[in-house]
Write a structure and sequence with these properties.
Strand content: 15-25%
Structural class: alpha/beta
CATH architecture: 3-Layer(aba) Sandwich
Number of strands: 8
Order of helices and strands: EHEHHHEEHHEHEHEHEHHH
Number of domains: 1
CATH class: Alpha Beta
Radius of gyration: 18 Å
Distance between the termini: 7 Å
Strand order of the largest sheet: 3-4-2-5-1-6-7-8
CATH superfamily: P-loop containing nucleotide triphosphate hydrolases
Largest sheet: 8 strands, mixed
Shape: globular
CATH topology: Rossmann fold
């Protein structure tokens, strides 16, 4: 069946717009340093490489996802802050990248003040959902050009208003988990957060998948963490594992996804495999 855009064009209702298929995936984990931004950049690039049209929403005040796809601070004329405060639409804020089929709505430090700016606004958890619903409606009316098929939201590492907006707007959550000890401590908290959002703001929210990142196959400890995560999340965990790779770490400083910076490295190949696995899962969702 066709999947429609998130939510309605205004208010907190549960209606849906008839629109081209667009899947909204929030890349989220309340722990920092687990590879959320790296996953958003490189998964988005890999999906674009196979013909999907992808939009990354940079929802972190640091703007690292924007930098990582080559949109520097001086080029961020319209940002996600403008979208969330109603000063611009998603399509107005979307900036093309050097990767064909990949765009980004950039972020900057304006996001730091968002929560204070929205005090008293009862609709504030739904701002992103409504903006994406408007985008879906606008894409229906656009003649020519290919509509976005995937929106990937790079979330900040906290349960803030920004993360609440992302999880309220998303169809599902993609969870990067670093293969290190403290990752285990956050697993229950993560599941509880998704359950809370599903019970209050977004009843359709689900965990799309869990991605093991920064994995070092040479160490028994990394293998043990991977086994524990698979035991906890079961089939939600992707078979593809993102290895610890220096080339992946270097790429953002050059403003390039790893698939552009070094297509042949093991990190690039892992994200290509992850994209293929994600598309296979998405095909199952569409067939349901």
């Amino acid at each position: 069946m066709a999947i429609t855009a998130a939510g309605t064009a205004s208010g907190a209702g549960s209606g849906h717009l008839t629109a081209p298929r667009v899947r909204v995936l929030a890349i989220s984990n309340q722990k920092g340093g687990v590879g959320k931004t790296t996953t958003a950049i490189n998964l988005g690039t890999a999906l674009a490489a196979v013909g999907e049209r992808v939009l990354i929403l940079d929802l972190d005040p640091q703007g690292n996802a924007s930098t990582g796809v080559g949109v520097g601070p001086d080029a961020r004329k319209v940002t996600i802050y403008d979208v969330l405060t109603g000063q611009a639409s998603v399509l107005q804020a979307a900036a093309k990248t050097n990767v064909p089929g990949l765009s980004v709505v950039p972020a900057n430090s304006d996001l730091v003040s968002l929560e204070a700016d929205m005090i008293g606004d009862g609709n504030r958890p739904y701002k992103l959902r409504d903006a994406l619903a408007t985008m879906a409606a606008e894409q229906v009316s656009v003649t020519g050009g290919k509509p976005f098929s995937y929106v990937l939201i790079d979330c900040p590492p906290s349960l803030s208003l920004l993360t609440l907006n992302a999880l309220t707007a998303a169809h599902a959550v993609l969870v990067p988990i670093q293969c290190e000890f403290f990752a285990l401590e956050g697993m229950s908290q993560l599941k509880e957060t998704v359950d809370q959002i599903r019970g209050t703001l977004n009843p359709r929210l689900e965990i799309q998948g869990v991605v093991l990142t920064m994995h070092d196959q040479r160490t028994a400890f990394s293998r043990e963490i991977a086994e524990n995560v698979r035991a906890f999340f079961g089939t939600k965990v992707y078979e593809t594992v993102i290895p610890r790779n220096i080339r992946v770490a270097e790429a953002p400083s050059h403003g390039q996804p790893i698939l552009i910076y070094d297509h042949a490295c093991v990190g690039s190949q892992a994200y290509i495999q992850l994209a293929a696995e994600l598309l296979a899962r998405e095909k199952q969702v569409l067939a349901a």
